[in-house]
């Protein structure tokens, strides 16, 4: 197997007396989808933010391996380099599409802007690619000049995904990408994410409390509880044969629902 894209170990993070992260280790390889699951408050979002360089841990390291194979400490690279990474090799899909879109910019502009950030300059080419991506995420291209605020929640989320994936990042962080949407909209969005991620071969770190979403999308699962990883392994193994009592409880509660 190739070297990990992202490799973290010994991560600690405290908010006062709350240990949000307690000795967490995680890695993700190119093209792999890893889900971080656990109940509310277990530390999932904190972990994602630390891994993406948005928050500094109290202890531990996060290493990112660039396309040339050089490993860089995420928390030592500086804000400008991190911002550049987030525009190029990385992407972030927020639970609330409004956090990942520019609501005052047209639909086509939202997608095109990311292409311009990596150097695209030909207006016609950018518009053609934006049109192509709108089709890919099942948004009618006749909406290309409309503002995203005229869209439903599901459409906004699909637009955020187009905006993030158009530059073909190597690693995408997703924080509850289907949270807050209707169940039928969630199912369609999960299918879309699964198809796009497989097609593009993107690595995804997915935070979710939805075990069904993790089963559908992830190759591997990490189960968090009170800031610790209590179990990790291949998705089928973890969900069909959970070893830790907490994972057993989590899986049983879904089966009972
Ligand atoms: N900025 C903050 N200030 C104080 N406490 C925080 C902060 N962010 C997170 N916490 C606490 O750290 C713990 C982990 O929170 P975190 O949001 O990472 O969990 P989570 O598993 O993502 O939960 P949820 O699914 O509800 O988002 C919780 O006890 C939370 O209250």
UniProtKB/TrEMBL annotation:
Stored Gene3D superfamilies: P-loop containing nucleotide triphosphate hydrolases
Pfam families cross-referenced by the UniProt entry: ABC_tran (PF00005)
Keywords: ATP-binding, Lyase, Nucleotide-binding
Residue ranges of every copy of the ABC transporter domain listed in the record: 6-251
GO biological process: organic phosphonate catabolic process
SMART domains assigned to the protein according to its UniProt record, in alphabetical order: AAA (SM00382)
NCBIfam families named in the record: CP_lyasePhnK (TIGR02323)
Protein name, as recorded: Phosphonate C-P lyase system protein PhnK
Native species: Teichococcus rhizosphaerae
Gene name as annotated: phnK
């Amino acid at each position: 197997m190739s070297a990990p894209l992202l490799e973290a170990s010994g991560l600690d993070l405290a908010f006062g007396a709350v240990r949000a992260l307690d000795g967490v280790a995680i890695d993700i390889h190119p093209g792999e989808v890893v889900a971080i699951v656990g109940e509310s408050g277990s530390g999932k979002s904190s972990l994602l933010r630390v891994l993406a360089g948005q928050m500094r841990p109290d202890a531990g390291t996060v290493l990112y391996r660039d396309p040339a194979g050089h490993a860089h400490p995420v928390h030592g690279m500086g804000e400008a380099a991190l911002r550049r990474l987030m525009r190029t090799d990385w992407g972030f899909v927020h639970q609330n599409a409004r956090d990942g879109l520019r609501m005052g910019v047209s639909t086509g502009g939202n997608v095109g802007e990311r292409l311009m950030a990596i150097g695209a300059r030909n207006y016609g080419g950018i518009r053609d690619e934006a049109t192509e991506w709108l089709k890919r995420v099942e948004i009618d291209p006749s909406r290309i000049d409309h503002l995203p605020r005229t869209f439903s929640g599901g459409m906004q989320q699909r637009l955020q995904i187009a905006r993030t994936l158009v530059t073909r990042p190597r690693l995408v962080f997703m924080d509850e990408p289907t949270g807050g949407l209707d169940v039928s909209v969630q199912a369609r969005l999960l299918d879309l994410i699964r198809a796009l991620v497989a097609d593009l071969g993107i690595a995804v770190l997915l935070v979710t409390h939805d075990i069904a979403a993790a089963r559908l999308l992830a190759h591997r699962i990490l189960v968090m509880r009170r800031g610790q990883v209590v179990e990790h392994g291949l998705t089928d193994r973890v969900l069909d044969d959970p070893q830790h009592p907490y994972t057993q409880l989590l899986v049983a509660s879904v089966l009972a629902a």
